[in-house]
Design brief:
The protein is mostly helical and about 375 residues long. Helices cover about 50% and strands about 5% of the residues. The chain contains twelve helices and seven strands.
């Protein structure tokens, strides 16, 4: 369950991929410390792409859940109730909507088969195939009965988020990939943990980037009492008896780590991350290139004057990619000599990004 909870936490805070691995050892260079998490130093060379939440927030959230597991972990009775409630909901929904959903799925599959049988398709037909594929996947998901497994998985996150909402002052909520997040309460929780020393960020620009998820505009965040109740406090997929019970509260003065605690102790600090290897720098550089390509593609979709080539000013703080929210902040370079440029037209399929030190992402 700890592995499952870790994956859920990683989805909530929307994280970038980590390096593929440490493939070689080398002597440790001088490292610039930019903060701490649970008493362990965090170094600038660990920042790769958009992984700041992974470095600072994920360990704190996981430790918070572990320290207060006795009240935050779902009980076997709760799991059983959620699973059975979801099974009954699915049966009722299929009795009402099942015939229509199956008919729509059959029509979608038939139209897909007709289009694919034609061979070469027009641009409009290709677009129609994409729409039909999306509809097919949606109807298959509607009809699928997973035995309540997804509901049980989401229940653990729901229990944590409802707790944070009650413990840290309510506020807006926001629908995310793994369920509804207590948006404002989550920020207050992090600010409280920062004051208590669970983590520190000594670089003001990095701290601003870490909190940018909460400080930038979030159009989907909602605070009307009715919507908060329907989305978080008493959603229709939670058994009414569980939703009606008071959310658990904890002693927030209880520390998440203890300086000097023996390794293996529940309050011990994590082991410091080793210095990055040359291969880590390559992976971090390629992650930056992917971020740039994605950010430029989104920018070009939103703006009439498109970016056709990459210049160094486009990944600095004042760039339109950063100011417009397409990049969460200026890129952290894995090597001081990294300089990104482009070949070809970035508005088309032939444009690529390359680094003066590490080259381009391999195509094979």
């Amino acid at each position: 369950m700890k592995k499952l909870f870790s994956r859920v936490i990683l989805a909530l805070v929307l994280m970038a991929a980590m390096p593929a691995g440490r493939l070689e050892a080398q002597s440790a260079p001088t490292r610039e410390q930019v903060g701490t998490v649970l008493g362990t130093p965090v170094y600038r060379d660990q920042i790769q792409g958009g992984n700041l939440p992974q470095l600072f927030i994920t360990p704190v959230m996981q430790r918070y859940h572990e320290v207060h597991e006795s009240v935050l972990k779902p009980t076997p009775e709760e799991r059983k109730a959620v699973q059975e409630f979801d099974r009954q909901r699915h049966e009722k929904e299929m009795a009402d909507r099942g015939p229509g959903l199956r008919a729509e799925l059959a029509e979608t599959e038939a139209e897909l088969a007709r289009l694919r049988a034609k061979g070469k398709l027009s641009d409009d037909e290709v677009e129609r195939v994409d729409e039909l594929e999306a509809t097919k996947m949606a109807r298959e998901a509607d009809l699928d009965d997973d035995g309540g497994r997804l509901a049980v998985m989401m229940f653990e996150m729901w229990k944590l988020q409802r707790h944070l909402y009650a413990q840290y002052g309510g506020g807006r909520v926001l629908w995310q990939q793994m369920g509804v997040e207590a948006f404002d309460a989550m920020r207050r929780f992090l600010e409280d943990q920062e004051k208590r020393g669970s983590f520190t960020v000594t670089d003001p620009s990095l701290r601003a980037r870490l909190y940018s998820y909460w400080t930038k505009d979030q159009p989907g965040a909602e605070d009307s009492p009715d919507r908060v109740r329907k989305l978080l406090l008493a959603p229709d997929w939670i058994p009414p008896a569980i939703a009606a019970a008071p959310p658990p509260t904890v002693d927030t003065d209880r520390p998440l780590f203890q300086p000097g605690a023996a390794p293996g102790s529940p309050l011990a600090s994590p082991h410091p991350a080793p210095p990055p290897t040359k291969q880590d720098a390559v992976h971090a550089c390629f992650a930056n290139q992917r971020l740039l390509l994605s950010a430029i593609e989104m920018y070009n979709m939103d703006n009439p004057t498109m970016i056709t080539d990459l210049t160094p000013d486009l990944y600095l703080p004042e760039s339109p990619l950063v100011q417009g929210g397409y990049l969460e902040g200026p890129l952290t370079l894995p090597d001081p000599a990294c300089r990104y440029s482009s070949t070809g037209d970035l508005t088309g399929d032939g444009g690529t990004i390359t680094c003066a030190v590490h080259g381009s992402i391999p195509t094979n």
